[in-house]
Amino acid sequence: MSDSMQLIPAEYDFVVVSNRLPVDRVTDSEGVASWTRSPGGLVTALEPVMREADGAWVGWGGQPDLEIEPFENNGIHIVPIALSASEIEEFYEGFSNDTLWPLYHDVISSPAYHREWWESYVKVNQRFADAAAAVSAQGAVVWVQDYQLQLVPKMLREIRPDLTIGFFDHIPFPPYGIYSQLPWRTQILEGLLGADVIGFQRVADAGNFLRAVRRLTPFVTKNPVVEVTSDSQQTRRVIARAFPISIDAKGFEELARDPKIQERAREIREGLGNPRTVMLGVDRLDYTKGIGHRLKAFGELLAEGRIDVQDVTLVQVASPSRERVAAYMQLRDEIELTVGRINGDFATMSHTAISYHHHGYPREEMVALYLAADVLLVTALRDGMNLVAKEYVASRFDDDGVLILSEFTGASDELKKALLINPHDIDGLKDTMLQAIAMPKKERQARMRSLRKRVNENDVARWSSNFLKTLEQARASHNGDETAMELPDELEWTVDRRWTN
Ligand code: G6P
User: Fold this and answer.
1) Backbone angles phi, psi at 333, to 5 degrees
2) Domain spanning 12-245+478-485 has what CATH number?
């Protein structure tokens, strides 16, 4: 532990650890730096818990060599972790996003295995664990987020056995046949098993994890529990199960009800030449999102004359992501070439085929786009959850709009009334796009009402409270309360269901 870490008082009862902080560092035109809240659902969900429980958030500020002392931001104690330029290359761009990300997403792109990247991953995970250990009060709850930090639970438990530790995996956990490629597969499992509760998006992800534990460790699993035995023959019970994440559904609906945002939605449609149907795609520019498959289907429908640019426009928002990783650079070239070709072939002076935007937009503009879109296209080849699908549904308080949703997203486990598609089946996708365009209002409303019920009931506050309740029970059982390992009733459905992979 570094000297500066030891100066931070260990006083926080609830500590979140994630690769990125919930605040972004922005520098204005005069070079003055400040922090703005990033609009993610996780912050919204955890903010009340943070305020109530004296919370701290440990994470990276998003730029190289940012050595900043901890500070307060809107009631959250922020603990920035510094990453050097070479750690960004090896830990973040390398092991996290060019090894684990493609491996965990069904090897859509080939994972690269480099021993130096792994060493950097171990070193940086240790830094996060040290910082979390330093700020946590005696007996605190620490919640570690996502694939960049899978070694932190074990490292943290070694320094601070008094803590209750949760881990949530926001991305898929792959089937054993794929996971077993990883040269450090056992170390990662051991890292995760340092937690008391390990959460996954889908029942299938938890199943994949438990299967990997059975194949690679001596520990006994009794779904959803893993019995982790230490060298001294003491047994610790770890819960590994699904807790599907969600969004701040009320927040999206509130924005959608704002007359200014509704006016903006009308403006957007007008700007597109008032086509009968606006289709929308909103994604990080990532090869897991199936943007190319969607463009292919749309281009073929135009080429076959089954749709016309006068009537149908596709708006594609592709927000920049991980731009220094080669697979992402190549993807951008491919997508932009395809968009250019389709527009070149089919756009007229008054109507464009695809309105393409390589930007991120503020939440207000996104909600205006959701209101402007008759059809939302989610064609991911693999996606832990896909929150865009849930945001669209939450925004459509008018009970209108059609959601086309890939069955390879976590969201498809819940959003059964969407038009579910296999994005690899281009003919099927084309037929579904036409079905969405032609869907009668009554059917659109019936489907959207059912989708909205689901999203409103299972919002992100419910997700975090379910996870934290389970973590509380794990803590109580460590303290000798034997009845405490029974799961809360509302959680049992995910345990009872068969694994679906
Ligand atoms: C996914 C991951 C997050 C990550 C986000 C943005 O949603 O699950 O952990 O923060 O993508 O990616 P980035 O690499 O920019 O943090």
Assistant:
1) -60, -45
2) 3.40.50.2000
Contacts of 482 (CB under 8 A, 6+ apart): none
pLDDT the model gives residue 376: 99
> Which two structure tokens, joined as six digits, stand for 441?
């209002």
Q: Which ranges constitute the DSSP H helices of 314-425? A: 326-346, 363-372, 387-395
- Rounded Cα distance, 62 and 66, in Å: 8
Residue 3: the pLDDT is 43
Q: Is the Cβ atom of 264 under 6 angstroms away from ligand 1?
A: no
| 380 Cα–ligand 1 center, Å | 15
Q: What is the pTM of this model?
A: 0.94
Residue 331 near residue 284 (C-beta atoms within 8 A)? no
What is the distance between the alpha carbons of residues 437 and 435, in angstroms, rounded to a whole number? 6
- 3-state secondary structure (DSSP) of residue 68: coil
Nearest to 124 by CA among 182, 64, 72, 183: 64
Q: Closest ligand 1 atom, CA of 146? A: 9
Residues 6+ apart with CB under 8 A from 354: 295, 298, 313, 314, 315, 316, 339, 342, 343
> 21, 18, 61, 64: which is closest to 324 by C-alpha?
64
Please write the tens of the pLDDT for every residue from 223-279. 999 999 988 889 999 999 999 999 999 999 999 999 999 999 999 999 999 999 999
Over the Cα atoms of the chain, what is R_g? 23
H or E element that contains 494: helix 492-496
CATH architecture for segment(s) 249-457: 3-Layer(aba) Sandwich (3.40)
Domain ranges for the chain: 12-245+478-485, 249-457
Q: To test ligand 1's pocket by mutation, which of 321, 382, 387, 390 has the most ligand atoms within 8 angstroms of CB?
A: 321
Tokens of 125: 């995970």
389 DSSP 8-state letter: H
Break the chain down into helix, strand, coil percent, rounded to 5: 50, 20, 30
* Ligand 1 contact, 20 CB (< 6 A): yes
Per-residue model confidence (pLDDT) at position 496:
31
Strand partners for 283: 318
In this chain, the answer to whether the domains covering 12-245+478-485 and 249-457 adopt an identical fold is yes
- Ligand 1 atom 8: the closest Cα is on which residue? 170
Residue 97 alpha carbon to ligand 1 centre in Å: 9
Q: According to the model, what pLDDT value does residue 498 have?
A: 27
List C-alpha distances in Å: 330 to 89, 108, 178, 291, 315. Answer: 18, 14, 24, 13, 21
Give the distance (Å) from ligand 1 centre to CA of residue 298. 28
> How far is Cα 442 from Cα 402, in angstroms, rounded to an integer?
12
Paired residues of 137 in beta bridges = none
Low-confidence residues of the chain: pLDDT under 70: 1-9, 39-41, 479-501
Residue 460's pLDDT is: 94
Instruction: Please give the pLDDT value at position 482.
Output: 56
